Amino acid sequence: MAGRVEGKVALVTGAARGQGRAHAVRLAAEGADVVVVDVCGQLPDVTYPSASEEDLDETVRQVEAQDRRAVSAVVDVRDLAGLKEAAGRGVAELGRLDVVVANAGICSPRPWDQVAPEVFANTLDVNVTGVWNTVMATAPHLASAGGSIVLVSSAAGLKVQPFMVHYTTSKWAVRGMAKAFATELAKHSIRVNSLHPTGVATPMGEGDMQATLGAAMAGDPRLAPMFSNLLPVQVTQPEDVADVVLFLASDESRYVTAHEMAVDAGVSEF
Ligand SMILES: NC(=O)c1ccc[n+]([C@@H]2O[C@H](COP(=O)([O-])OP(=O)(O)OC[C@H]3O[C@@H](n4cnc5c(N)ncnc54)[C@H](O)[C@@H]3O)[C@@H](O)[C@H]2O)c1
After folding, report:
1. DSSP 5
2. Which stretch is the leader sequence (predicted)?
3. Cβ neighbours of residue 231 closer than 8 Å, sequence gap 6 or more
4. Residue 25 in 3-state DSSP?
5. Rounded distance between C-alpha atoms, residue 238 and residue 18, angstroms
6. In this structure, which residue's CA is closest to atom 17 in ligand 1?
7. In terms of Cα–Cα distance, which of 140, 149, 138, 235 is closest to 195?
8. What is the pLDDT along the chain (270 residues), one digit of tens a residue?
9. 3-state class of 36 per DSSP?
10. Residues 21, 262: contact at Cβ < 8 Å?
């Protein structure tokens, strides 16, 4: 039986680990070749470990284990020229581009009055300009073939999550950006949707992340329930999000565009 994205080519940023790796492997399992992009280096301001080139190599290995081809690129999404080179090389080697998942992002929670100007700027650079760069570098390759672009926001882009003014700002911007691109790319039959996960078990939640959040919550415990999911699940898995990325990447969602797709266990309604 043909895979749900058989013959398509996808590009995923932030693919060295976590959700990005799950998206790359899930799309490959359903028949896509994948361009996997990651900075594989120190992330600004964060209190969790950064990804390595070995992590990206492992994603390539897992894609190839699905009998699909992978092209990898160590690129910072803040580098538009680097992304253009990666997209061009991916199309040259894999023949086309159908799906883009702008997934790379950083999260460095802290109370509002501890967000230094450079922390605010770094979060906007990676989470907003990086997503814009990803679309600018890839959409020209999609234009003649139609396609699907998924911009990864967060539940923090649907409702407020406390102790992350900078992150929340960036994820609401991604939500708006998806609608703006969807409007102008529609004439090429390119769909653009934003994706809004609740908490996902990835390395982003490791290191000192929980302690950092806990310390912030101690300053205003009334806000802690804002992280509660409606469904009785504490944390979701990368594969839960990848299932929805697969749907948005596939032709099953061919009339879904400019949509805010929540994979949020209802947290945004709680
Ligand atoms: N984990 C969660 O609870 C959660 C919830 C909602 C949304 N998100 C969002 O999902 C996306 C994926 O997060 P994750 O949980 O897999 O985190 P993660 O930290 O495990 O993975 C993110 C990947 O992005 C890469 N990356 C970061 N900055 C980059 C840059 N400038 N250029 C290229 N690559 C870069 C990292 O190296 C890493 O491999 C992010 O946009 C995040 O904001 C995460």
Report:
1. T
2. none
3. 265, 266
4. helix
5. 6
6. 204
7. 149
8. 799 999 999 999 999 999 999 999 999 999 999 999 999 999 999 999 999 999 999 999 999 999 999 999 999 999 999 999 999 999 999 999 999 999 999 999 999 999 999 999 999 999 999 999 999 999 999 966 779 999 999 999 999 999 999 999 999 999 999 999 999 999 999 999 999 999 999 999 999 999 999 999 999 999 999 999 999 999 999 999 999 999 999 999 999 999 999 999 999 998
9. strand
10. no
Over 219-247, what HEC string results?
Answer: CCHHHHHHHCCCCCCCCECHHHHHHHHHH
Alpha helices in the chain (DSSP H): 18-29, 53-64, 80-94, 117-124, 130-142, 165-185, 209-218, 238-249
The whole model's pTM is what?
0.98
CA–centroid distance, 20 to ligand 1, in Å, is: 7
Domains, the chain: 9-263 (3.40.50.720)
167 is catalytic: yes
Among 171, 200, 206, name the best residue to mutate to test ligand 1's pocket (greatest count of ligand atoms within 8 A of Cβ): 200
Contacts for 171 with CB less than 8 Å, ≥ 6 apart: 127, 153, 154, 156, 157, 196
In whole angstroms, give the CA distance from residue 84 to residue 267. 36
Per-residue pLDDT, 1: 79
Relative to the CA of 19, which ligand 1 atom is closest?
16
